[in-house]
Write a structure and sequence with these properties.
Elements lengths: L1 H5 L2 H25 L3 H15 L4 H29 L5 H24 L2 H21 L13 H18 L4 H10 L4 H26 L10 E2 L2 E2 H21 L5 H24 L1
Antiparallel strand pairs: 1-2
């Protein structure tokens, strides 16, 4: 097969091992810090594909597409779990979902025309903001009580859907801090984020899969911009270790670890910016 003629067995074994490790790290950190797996998977995959020499023209597209695909099963299971616990406000979902879907569609169309450098710039910019929020957010901070009017809600939902699609993350990374700042209870914000992750990841991953068909220079085992090997190894590892992270959260200083992860995100964002400028 062409895959094997281009890459040695050792290279493929290294790829598989690194992808499995990505899932393990993403699962632990997601459970430990309460963040979506995508915000962990994207920077780790980006660094991994850089080290493995994946061509820069497709590197970020495959990173984002693969991350969105891994979010599909985890967001479905997470949504079901939150619904059983009563932490999923369907009224809130109904208000946000139309604009989130519109944002996802806009992001999916834009991703077809954006270069890898543009996707990298989007992720780096938002990741830097997320990192600053994680590191310096004040407890009890709020902008207002509840969602704003129709226009404001549409802007919030569209922004969450569009930016999350372009970044390769589920809705939780953006929706949880935004909703919490609107005085939505944290458990409800997390449950809503899980449901939005499902709404974002299914059409988002599908778009990246279709947009990448027949594009050259993709890593082995890629269908479009979705790396099937990555999805097959990351998803079970993430699902197996998220519970470990949640247990660890009760034993160590999660706030300090959150600051460490914020520093990792910030350094990743700065490294991406540096790569764009050099």
């Amino acid at each position: 097969m062409d895959f094997f003629s281009q890459h040695s067995t050792l290279w493929l074994l290294g790829l598989a091992t690194a992808l499995l490790a990505t899932g393990l790290v993403a699962g632990v950190l997601a459970g430990l810090l309460g963040v979506g797996g995508g915000i962990v998977i994207v920077p780790v995959l980006y660094h991994l594909f850089t080290l493995l020499g994946v061509d820069e023209s497709v590197r970020m597209h495959v990173t984002v597409g693969t991350s969105l695909a891994t979010i599909i099963p985890t967001s479905i299971l997470s949504s079901r779990a939150h619904k059983k616990r009563g932490s999923l406000d369907m009224g809130l979902i109904k208000r946000l979902m139309p604009s989130v879907i519109a944002g996802v569609l806009a992001g999916s169309v834009a991703s077809r025309f954006l270069s890898g450098a543009s996707l990298t710039a989007v992720f780096a910019s938002v990741a830097l903001v997320v990192a600053l929020n994680m590191a310096f957010k004040r407890d009890g901070f709020a902008l207002r009580d509840g969602l704003p009017g129709r226009l404001g809600t549409a802007l919030i939902g569209g922004g969450i859907g569009g930016v999350s699609t372009l970044m390769g993350i589920g809705g939780g990374t953006l929706s949880v801090p935004i909703l919490n700042a609107l005085r939505v209870p944290m458990h409800t914000a997390v449950g809503t984020g899980a449901m939005l992750g499902m709404v974002i990841s299914v059409p988002g991953a599908t778009a990246f899969l279709l947009n990448g068909l027949d594009v050259p220079l993709r890593p082995p085992f890629s269908l479009g911009y979705v790396n099937l090997l990555g999805m097959a190894l990351i998803v079970p590892a993430t699902m197996a270790t998220t519970g470990w992270g949640a247990q660890l959260a009760h034993r160590i200083d999660a706030r300090r670890l959150r600051q460490v992860f914020a520093a990792f995100l910030a350094l990743t964002a700065l490294r991406m910016f540096y790569g764009l400028l050099t």
